[in-house]
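Risk mitigation, structural track. In case the binding assays with adenosine-5'-triphosphate fail to produce interpretable data, a predicted complex structure has been prepared as a fallback.
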Amino acid sequence: MSSPIGKSQIDPAAHGGTVLRVDGLVVRYGSRTAVDGVGFTIARGEIIGLLGPNGAGKTTTLNVIEGLRKPIGGSVTVDGIDALRDPLDARARMGVQLQSSGFQPELSIEQLLRLYAGLYGVRMSREDARRALDDTGLGQEAGKRLKGLSGGQAQRFSLLIATIHNPLLLLLDEPTSGLDPQSRRSLWQRIEASRRRGGSILLTTHSMEEAQAVCDRIVIIDHGRLVTTGSPAELITAHREDPRVLAIAHGEPTLEDVFIALTGSDLRD
Ligand code: ATP
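Fallback model:
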């Protein structure tokens, strides 16, 4: 399997190692401001967790980066490309996990894999496709349609599609939600493998434990605004004496304690 665009993607040194720069993003749905001035950067090879309570604006932010929604303000730069002006060029450098419903339902997963490889300009023979499915633990399912797979298998398949072109930036919206511990671990190994190939990953999760364990850096947003950013250890150190953290921590403060202290314990819509 060879990727004509894959090789040049993993070389963002020309942009100071910054793969993604989001600045002052503002998105409105009618009169509701969903994202209100959010900004952050991602360096080459970083795994960043975009965290926030329900309705904080995480998916909206990802949608803007992916080019699915236009902001009314701010900028998004991917590998030095203005993603709002040249969304196709920017999109070619990204891998995005599609929902099962986004795939053609009549095709087998092997046919889907070869179809998407073609769309991404990656040459993939039948043998290549079989090998990729084998490596993903889906060799036995090659002839099945996506709806015949378990939740964990479907997630693995959509991650395989998202990484088919060895993207510079992988965007994952709650990649492990609903997965059992085995599937979650397997998915994390695949995300780590993408990072080892030089890719950067921006993901959302509601699991603070997972974020603390796997993310290099955390970006917390709430009500569409940036609350704070830092490595899990930095955030815990910075807030460990905060009375709101002390009030809820059982022993050593965790990222979850800091997250709840900073975003409040009120339930969201
Ligand atoms: P969750 O953790 O629940 O997935 P989120 O952080 O991803 O939440 P978004 O889905 O980005 O949040 O939503 C941000 C805000 O924008 C919320 O108030 C939500 O109700 C609103 N919103 C999202 N999509 C739309 C839409 N298509 N039309 C109108 N309002 C929307």
